[in-house]
Write a structure and sequence with these properties.
It contains 19 helices and 22 strands. Strands 2-1-5-4-3 form a five-stranded antiparallel sheet, sandwiched between helices.
Amino acid sequence: MNFHLSIRVKLFLSILLAILFSYTILLFLTIHTIQNSLDKKISRELEISHRFIRYQFYTGANQLRYVLHLPSAQPQVKNYLQQKNASELSGVLKSIQQALPYLNCAAFVDPQGRVLASLDSRTTGQFFELGGLANTAFRKRETVISFELVNSTLFCREGAPCASGQLGSEVLAAAVAFPILDDSGTLLGGLVAALPINVKNIIPNQVQEAFGHDLEAAITLKNLKIISGSDEHLAIAAANVEKILPDLQKGKTHRGEVKIGTTLYHAAFEPITNSRGEFIGSLSVALSKEHFKTMRREYFGGIMVSAIFATLLSLLSAYSASRWLASPLKELTRGVQCIEEGNLDFRVATDATGEFEMLADSFNRMADALRERDTTIRNKTFDLEMLNRCLSEMNELLESNVKERTAELEMEKGRLEAILASMAEGIVVTDGNNRVILFNSAAQRIFGIAPYKMIDRHVEDIDMKGEFLHLVQGMREVKTEDLLVGKEKEVQVGRKKLRVSLSPFLDQTFEFAGVVMSIRDVTHEEEVARMKTEFIAAVSHELKTPLTSMKGSLQLILGKGEGLTEMERELIRVCHRNTDRLIRLINDILDISKIESGTVDLNLKPESINRLVAYSLQEIDGFARDNGVTLQNAVATEGLPVLGDHDRLIQVLTNLLSNAIKFSSPGKTVTVSARRQGDFIEVSVMDEGNTIERADRDKLFQKFPQMKGIKAREVGGTGLGLAICKEIVERHHGRISYQAGKAGGNIFSFTVPACGENL
């Protein structure tokens, strides 16, 4: 037997179930909201009460701190402590007790914690019971406030009433320790005071009446035994103690339901710790749940009456609605079945008005839209098939282009690898993390290591002989300095001397992407340069003797001068000057050849830089006057001793001064200064001429430099002066450098080792 329900019954049951379900949810939400509201109210009232009790709890200690701060800071008290005047200190304590009658425990202690004076003179000279708090204040050099659990005999001895049992065996006290320092910061001692705390101090009777009897505040020991409360005979249930104690021992505040005596409370327990951070008790606030239970019962009674009335109203509404909705819904149901079967030409006809009429019209419009969409889908399906065919053709074309481009890239890569392999210079390329990504055949020949041992390895992990690893620092400098500027280094690998050019390269975002090292073996070039230097030195030595004879002959002819015309005499003078110039050039070549070959021995001895500078200025003074340049000695008058060769250092100074005078215009000043720089003395020659161009600065200390400046071509010179200076300074284990002056001009500086002797 098939059980069939008519649409009217279905509508009735559906509407009824929907309404009842809605009312059930509403009832549940209402009950839940009321419960949450009550819980929030309980939490809020508990939090407000707890905050007030905590404020009152800490207010007493802070008030004690503020009241005792002024006496502890008085200069007279510091003098009494320094003199250990017990009688005067006792007088200070009595005056404090007169101002604070409730203070019955206070003492002055020395830096070791022994009592100097107290409200009870019997403890003088003994270690104070709160000495640990005093030591904490002495160590931190600041006022310390703490709560301590102490024996009640401390307050009995100090004069507190305890004979009648007003205090128990253990008392929770608010204690304050003030370190007292003299003007120099030396610890003289301290003032320590304590007050017993109980709930009556925290909540006066007027405040208790305002809160009502539903509030219970108490102070407990570490085992949660109530030692001070509105009803000290009550006890916390053992089951609650086991839940509360772990939180308090961890320093956490515990909130929850607690049974105190026979009453259930919402309670909050806050741990109390002493100056050492030890858990010594708790401060608790509890609100009775009975009042909130009564409120909950009243709310729930009203809700249940409303629920019964709503259920009856739901039955009546469901019955009426089912009768009104049944007829047009049947027609709509038939229309849906036709649409489901694929008959998109069916249309609903009904005599209903209002929403059902609108629903019928909407259904008919939906049928029209479905018929139009069906036609559109058929057309779009055909278009999509054509589009897919076009996309497939385009995909094939793209794949063909990618293959061609890949082949071109492979060809370009092969060309690049062939170029790198055929280069005479070694090429090593690293990425941004200093890992080798390219190592060509020339680099393999230079270093004698296979590329597979280098690729993908960090340059710092490569084990090589010589000074190759010095390039690691150069790579770091390239990475941290200007990314558009490279640098060159010379390294020795075995018997090979290599010149390495380090250049950074950037990625598409102009960020550092690695270093390109170009390595050239200059061993043969260095050997050729050495042979050339030796040849020049030999030729210069051979030329020096005939040139000296020629100079003597020209001087002899000029000395007699009889029978010579003025033109002949001028020509002889020109020959004489050029002979001097050739002799100076030959002397400079011989000097630098001897220095470079190591055949010159320096006579190192203590010398005064003041005397060296003065002698150099005196020697070059005539040349300066001829050029209209003023010389200034800015070296300090006190002796700056150096360890060096007298003649060679004079040669360096006169060369630098001569260059400065040559490149200075008439009326300018050349200044010599010296200063100590660690273990060296730095000497600087400053001129006011035109600053040397940046392109020429790297060539300054080379032999026969080709300078671009106009002044350089006008003044002339051998081109060896600065190179000789560099060799002499480096033989003294110093360094020579150039920098442009801040206000223009040029500064040449060199360093020589300082000597411990005062000259």
